[in-house]
Specification:
Keywords: Transferase. By secondary structure, the protein is of the alpha/beta class. The protein has eleven helices and twelve strands.
C-alpha cells in the first residue's frame, strides 16, 4: 500500500492558521502524500508560512494564482497533482492521524468504490477539544451515510449535500471525468461537485471508522456568509440540476422524471421560504428574488408572502 495521495489545499488569507494544517499533515501515519497549497491571491503572510514548510519538506508545494475563488484554486491544484488518490482539504481544517492510511487501505480493498467519505466533527478554534457533529453545535449529525451509485446516489444529493469537502478521498479518474469543481457555482461548489460525480456514475460509500475523521474549524472567517445569498446560490444550482439530469447517460427516463419532480419540489419549497422571510420593502432583496424565477412565479409568491406576513401580524396583535 504505497499509493500517492495528493492533498489539495486552497488558501486565501489563512496565513494565521495554515501552519497548524500543514503540521497536521506531517503527523499523519500515512506518509506517501504530496500537499499542494494554492494561494488564491492572499494579502497576508500565507506565502511566507507555506514556503517555510516547503523548504523543510519537499512533499509540500506552494502554488499561487490571482484571486479567482476556491473552485479555481482546487482545479489548479488538481492539474498540478500526481496522486492516484485525491484529498481536498480546506486551509483551516484538520485530519485525524489515521484518516489517510485507513481510507487508502479501504479504497485498495474496494476497487468498485470511487469516493469513500468519512464522518466529521466541528470544533471552535479556541476550544479544540470540544467537538460537535454539526456546524450549529446542536449535536445533530446531518450526514447521509450511503453505499450507492446511479439513481440512489443522485437522489440523495438532490435532497442535500452529502459530505464536507475535506471528508472524502477520491480516485483521480472521477475528478478527471467531471473536470473538477464547477467554477461558476456560488456557495454550493462542494455540493455541486459531489452531485456531478454522482451524475457521472461515481460509486459512493460511507467509510465508518472512529479513527478516520475530518475536523472542521468554526471561526469568524466561516460564519459571515449571508444566508439569503447562499440560498440564492442553491436555487441557481437547482436550475443546473435539471440540465444535468436530463443529459445523464446513467439514468433511465423513469428515474430522470422522479429526480426532476423531487428537484422541482425542493426548488419551490426553498423559494417559498425565501419569499416568506424576505423584507418586501427592500428593493435589493426583491431584485435578487425576482431574478431567481419567472415573473409569474415571483408575483405569485410576492402576494402569498404579503398574505403570510399579514396573518402573522394579526396573530401578534390579538
Amino acid at each position: 500500500m504505497n499509493k500517492l495521495v495528493s492533498i489539495i489545499i486552497p488558501s486565501y488569507n489563512y496565513g494565521f492558521i495554515i501552519a497548524e494544517t500543514l503540521q497536521n499533515l506531517l503527523e499523519q501515519s500515512y506518509q506517501h502524500w504530496e500537499a499542494l497549497i494554492v494561494d488564491d491571491g492572499s494579502k497576508d503572510n500565507t506565502r511566507e508560512v507555506v514556503e517555510k514548510f516547503a523548504l523543510a519538506d519537499k512533499r509540500i508545494t506552494y502554488l499561487s494564482q490571482p484571486n479567482s475563488g476556491v473552485s479555481v484554486a482546487r482545479n489548479f491544484g488538481f492539474k498540478k497533482s500526481k496522486g492516484e488518490y485525491i484529498q481536498f482539504l480546506d486551509a483551516d481544517d484538520l485530519l485525524s492521524k489515521e484518516k489517510l492510511a485507513l481510507q487508502v487501505a479501504f479504497l485498495e480493498q474496494h476497487p468498485e468504490v470511487d469516493i469513500a467519505y468519512t464522518d466529521h466533527l466541528y470544533f471552535e478554534t479556541d476550544k479544540p477539544h470540544i467537538t460537535y457533529p454539526d456546524y450549529e453545535m446542536n449535536n445533530h449529525n446531518w450526514l447521509p451515510k450511503i453505499d450507492a451509485k446511479g439513481y440512489e446516489a443522485v437522489n440523495t444529493l438532490i435532497y442535500s449535500n452529502i459530505a464536507v469537502v475535506s471528508s472524502p478521498m477520491l480516485r483521480r479518474k472521477i475528478v478527471e471525468k467531471v473536470n473538477g469543481f464547477p467554477e461558476f457555482s456560488n456557495y454550493t461548489e462542494d455540493w455541486e461537485f459531489w452531485f456531478l460525480c454522482a451524475i457521472h456514475g461515481a460509486h459512493y460509500r460511507f467509510f465508518e471508522n472512529e479513527k478516520a475523521k475530518t475536523l472542521i474549524r468554526i471561526h469568524h472567517r466561516n460564519t459571515s456568509k449571508n444566508i439569503q445569498i447562499m440560498q440564492a446560490g442553491e436555487l441557481q444550482f437547482r436550475k443546473r440540476i435539471v440540465t444535468a439530469v436530463e443529459g445523464s447517460a446513467f439514468l433511465s427516463e423513469t428515474e430522470k422524471q422522479k429526480l426532476l419532480e423531487r428537484n422541482d419540489a425542493s426548488t419551490q419549497k426553498l423559494y417559498k421560504y425565501m419569499m416568506y422571510h424576505a423584507n418586501l420593502l427592500d428593493p435589493k432583496q426583491l431584485k435578487i428574488l425576482s431574478s431567481l424565477t419567472s415573473s409569474k412565479t415571483f408575483v405569485s409568491y410576492y402576494f402569498k408572502s404579503l398574505n403570510f406576513k399579514r396573518k402573522n401580524l394579526f396573530k401578534k396583535t390579538r
